[in-house]
Amino acid sequence: MSLRVGIIGAGPSGMAQLRAFEAARAKGADMPEIVCFEKQSDWGGQWNYSWHTGIDGSGESAHSSMYRHLWSNGPKECLEFSDYTFDEHFGRPISSFPPREVLFDYIAGRVEKSDVRKYIQFNTAVRWVNYDEATEEFTLFSQDVKTGESKTYVFDKLVVSTGHFSTPNIPEFDGINTFPGEVLHAHDFRGAERFGGKRLLMIGSSYSAEDIGMQAHKMGAASITLSYRSGPMGFDWPSTTVERPLVTRFEGTTAHFADGTSGEFDAVIMCTGYLHKYPFLPSDLAVNSPNVLYPGNLYKGVVWQQNTNLFYLGAQDQYYTFNMFDAQAWFARDVMTGKIAMPSAAERAADIQSWLDTQAALADHDAEADFQTDYVRELINATDYPEFDLDAVSTLFKDWMRHKSEDILGYRDKAHRSVITGTMAEIHHTRWINAMDDSLERFLNGPSQNMDTNAMATVDANAILAKGK
Ligand code: FAD
Ligand code: NAP
Question: Ligand 2 centre from 293 Cα, in Å?
Answer without folding.
Answer: 13
